[in-house]
Design a protein that fits this description.
Order of helices and strands: HEEEHEHEEEHEHHHEHEHEHEHH
Strand order of the largest sheet: 3-4-5-8-9-10-11-12
CATH architecture: Alpha-Beta Barrel
Structural class: alpha/beta
Number of strands: 12
Shape: globular
CATH superfamily: Aldolase class I
């Protein structure tokens, strides 16, 4: 018999106490109002996971400013007073169901495929992301070539993350996760073929991680010690699943040690398969590398739907918390099912068809 008790042990991330080590991973659901307000429909959706036993919920990516950060039409924001108030209802519902909640702050950069504020995009260099926009997020065709972000725009982006983090604090969130993964703006700076800058933000891994580290410090300083702060990191992207850091383990050491030194409370790694080696020449997972080099709490995400695989990440010391995405969509009460040795349901493909928005049958049943 597998001992799953490590999944249920309490844990502290920064100022946030978790009742268990199972988190809901962030997933884009494009179900806000057109002007970026969180809705009662979204509140009901998130409460289902809290009532299903997840100790921590991390929101879908929320855009932090009213310039270039929005990535999808009907994506929620937390840049305005009205948007901030709309999230308070969502957070209150999650808290009343016994879970903690972090807001994921996301600047889409060149990977934007829907923005109601501007018709252009920005990136570290004038290089378009690989692949094409996603139809189930209302996208169509290749990504356009972005304008190279200017120093003044970089300053504005940093201020936007700070404002959004403070808004998240006012809305009642327990913490914020800075989105530095999956091909969005901060990950674009990390990516060698998207970042062709010749200034102090391009070239070496030390330079390419600089912008993300500055934002981590900015947010950490702004929100104070009574709010948890972390960053999500990946190698693969929405538009490039096969990307790997060319510097392999040495590059990972630079990235994770730099981010760990900023004062963040956690790093959230996401891979297609979190339990597999990060590089061909290494046996260590990306989560284990983050744990070894950052000195902070690590959340691991990536096909951990099998509870034996999930608990092995904790038992081996590769991660402190596991986060579930599609596995949670298939089983909103995954922790309850594991605790009681019950069978899992298969993921209904209708979750993503024709759009990846929240469907009626995903909401809480009437009281």
């Amino acid at each position: 018999m597998i001992d799953f008790t490590p999944l249920w042990s309490p844990f502290q991330i920064g100022s946030t106490h978790l009742d268990n080590r199972v988190a809901l991973a962030p997933m884009t659901r494009i179900s806000a109002t057109e002007d970026g307000l969180a809705t009662e429909r979204m509140a009901s959706y998130y409460r289902t996971f809290a009532r299903g036993g997840f100790g921590l919920l991390i929101t879908e990516g929320i855009y932090p400013d009213t310039a270039h950060s929005q990535g999808y039409h009907y994506q929620p924001g937390i840049a305005t007073e009205e948007q901030t108030r709309s999230w308070a209802t969502v957070v209150d519902g999650v808290h009343s169901a016994g879970a903690r909640m972090f807001a994921q702050l996301m600047h889409a950069g060149a990977q934007s495929q829907g923005n109601r504020f501007v018709t252009s995009s920005i990136g570290p260099s004038a290089v378009a992301p690989k692949g094409e926009q996603l139809a189930f997020y209302r996208g169509e065709g290749p990504y356009p070539v972005p304008a190279e972000i200017t120093p003044d725009q970089m300053t504005d982006v940093r201020k936007g993350f700070v404002t959004a983090a403070l808004n998240a604090k006012r809305a009642g969130f327990d913490g914020v996760e800075i989105h530095g993964a999956n091909g969005y703006l901060l990950d674009q700076f990390l990516t060698d073929y998207l970042n062709q800058r010749t200034d102090s933000y391009g070239g070496s891994p030390e330079n390419r991680v600089r912008f993300a580290a500055e934002i981590c410090r900015d947010v950490r300083d702004a929100v104070g010690p009574d709010m948890t702060v972390g960053i999500r990191i990946s190698q693969s992207k929405v538009s490039d699943n096969d990307h790997r850091w060319s510097g392999t383990g040495e590059e990972a050491e630079v990235i994770f040690s730099t981010l760990g030194a900023t004062g963040v409370d956690f790093i959230h790694t996401t891979e297609y398969q979190a339990s597999e080696p990060a590089f061909e020449d290494s046996e260590e997972t990306l989560a284990a590398l983050a744990k070894a080099h950052s000195g902070v709490t690590v959340i691991a995400n990536g096909k951990l739907d099998d509870p034996e695989t999930a608990v092995s990440m904790l038992r081996d010391g590769a991660a402190d918390v596991v986060a579930l995405g599609k596995a949670a969509l298939a089983n909103r009460n995954w922790p309850h099912l594991v605790r009681n040795n019950l069978e899992f349901d298969e993921l209904d493909p209708g979750v993503f068809a024709p759009l990846a928005d929240v469907k009626d049958w995903e909401l809480e049943p009437p009281a």
